[in-house]
Specification:
468 residues; alpha/beta; Leucine Aminopeptidase, subunit E, domain 1; Aminopeptidase; 9-stranded mixed beta sheet; 5-stranded mixed beta sheet; manganese; Peptidase_M17_C; hydrolase; EC 3.4.11.1; aminopeptidase
Length: 468
């Protein structure tokens, strides 16, 4: 099946669009007093209280829509939540709607982006009630940028949501190649035993037990020839049984999302390329299925990575760091100005920070500060965790250079990040993401979701400007 890249779009401004009024509870009485008496009485009779995301359609005397009130909610509700008004997009009839300027620029941008995110539906297998209401681009907002961000997010969500039977290593590679073609880049895919010839032994070891049509592969994409060099590496484990250290059924149920790191870097690349950022972009995705068969890697095996380090496999379910290690080693040979990896790597990260806030790791305090500020501006929460040097000993077993799964059950996200750092050139940033929305929330339907990409996009001009 050929993948069609989504094109979410804010409507062009026009006066026939229905007005939207975003009202805070403390402003409601004054606003209603300024309406025609019949409309004010109608609003009062409905009990509309301007709660976060609450919607009220105001009628004209002929029954047509005069306007729409959307509750902003209290300041505390807005502080606690993101995109709290976005749910309105799914509750309005088809048509174009324009925002009457009652917001700051940042609030209008958040509202517009939330509207686009709320309008996403995954309908490959079942028709969905896709919102038909369109938002006119608010005055002063960069509609092209918001459209690009939404298109990248839609791509990430589509890839994560697709079941593994239809999004294996080959299908993921096909989407990546199509993305490269769409943006005039180059691409290449190294498959199966050719990985050994090309010196990607750990990617091969993790994926070699899969069926022939789901053979492991390394996907590479390149764009641009001038500007600072950015390399993105995304974990592409298209399904993870756990290998011989097999997961229980409850742990395997969401493993179609174990390629969420790859999905996120492809979505981020799509954003960057639509916006024509002045940089050289390289994307690397080790795409595998961690399966069980006679040729599967075994607990206790020692693998030799691309950069020569040996790794004792003490748990075949800690496979993501193995495939990332070879890709990071390749990326580091080219000494990029900034190297970023994104992966659904550890449950420990979820224990530490929950599903909504992925940790990131870097040795560079300036990079960390820039990302933290960008995270707030982009409404894309992330949180720095440390490359804690005292834990280095935990990833050093007795018979090899590194241990892929140190025992003890503590600091699992940190030890995984320390493992990856052994293969990465500086400056390096690693994100341990979840890539999944457990329950529907404003602008985030249940299912696959991008994490960290918008924060990175907002930070890149400063991060790469300093690299020049």
């Amino acid at each position: 099946m050929t993948y069609t890249f989504p094109t979410p779009t804010l409507a062009a401004p026009h006066e026939d669009a229905t007005p939207l009024y975003l009202i805070a509870p403390e402003d409601l009485a004054t606003f209603l007093a300024g309406l025609p008496p019949a409309q004010g009485a109608f609003a009062g009779a409905t009990g509309f209280a301007a709660g976060a995301g609450e919607v009220l359609i105001l009628p004209e005397v002929d029954g047509s829509i005069a306007g729409v009130l959307i509750g902003r909610g209290s300041a505390e509700a807005r502080r606690r939540g993101r995109f709290v008004m976005a749910g309105a997009a799914a509750r309005l009839p088809a048509g174009d709607y324009r925002l009457v300027p009652l917001l700051t620029h940042d609030e209008a941008e958040e509202f517009a982006l939330g509207w686009l995110f709320e309008s996403y539906r995954f309908d490959r297998y079942k028709a969905q009630n896709t919102p038909k209401a369109r938002l006119v681009a608010p005055e002063g907002v960069d509609a092209g940028r918001l459209n690009a961000i939404a298109a990248g997010e839609y791509l990430t969500r589509d890839l994560v949501n697709t079941p593994a039977a239809d999004m294996g290593p080959a299908q993921l590679a096909n989407v990546a190649v199509a993305l490269a073609d769409l943006h005039g880049g180059t691409s290449g895919v190294t498959v199966g035993d050719a990985l050994l010839d090309a010196n990607f032994p750990m990617i091969h070891a993790v994926g070699r037990a899969a069926a022939a049509d789901r053979a492991p592969r390394l996907i590479e994409m390149n764009f641009g020839t001038t500007g600072p060099r950015l390399t993105l590496v995304g974990k592409g484990v298209c399904f993870d049984t756990g290998g011989l250290d097999i997961k229980p059924a409850a742990g395997m149920g969401l493993m179609k999302k174990d390629m969420g790191g790859a999905a996120t870097v492809l979505g981020l690349a799509h954003m960057i390329l639509q916006l024509n950022l002045p940089l050289q972009l390289r994307v690397l995705v080790p795409a595998v299925e961690n399966s069980i068969a006679g040729g599967a890697m075994r607990p206790g095996d020692v693998l030799t990575a691309r950069n020569g380090l040996t790794v004792e496999v003490n748990n075949t379910d800690a496979e993501g760091r193995l495939v990332l290690a070879d890709a990071l080693a390749l990326a580091s040979e080219d000494a990029p100005d900034l190297l970023i990896s994104m992966a659904t790597l550890t449950g420990a990260a979820r224990v530490a920070l929950g599903p909504d806030v992925p940790p990131f790791y870097t040795d560079d305090d300036s990079i960390a500060a820039t990302l933290a500020a960008a995270s707030t501006a982009a409404r894309d929460p992330i949180w720095r965790m440390p490359f804690h040097p005292a834990y280095e000993a935990l990833i050093e077993p007795g018979i090899a250079d590194l241990d892929n799964a140190p025992g003890g059950g503590m600091a699992g996200s940190i030890t995984a990040a320390l493992f990856l750092r052994r293969f990465a050139a500086a400056p390096y940033v690693h994100f341990d993401i979840y890539a999944w929305q457990q329950a529907a929330a404003p602008a985030r339907p249940k299912g696959g979701v991008g994490q960290g990409a918008r924060a990175l996009l907002a930070a890149l001009p400063q991060l790469l400007g300093e690299a020049q």
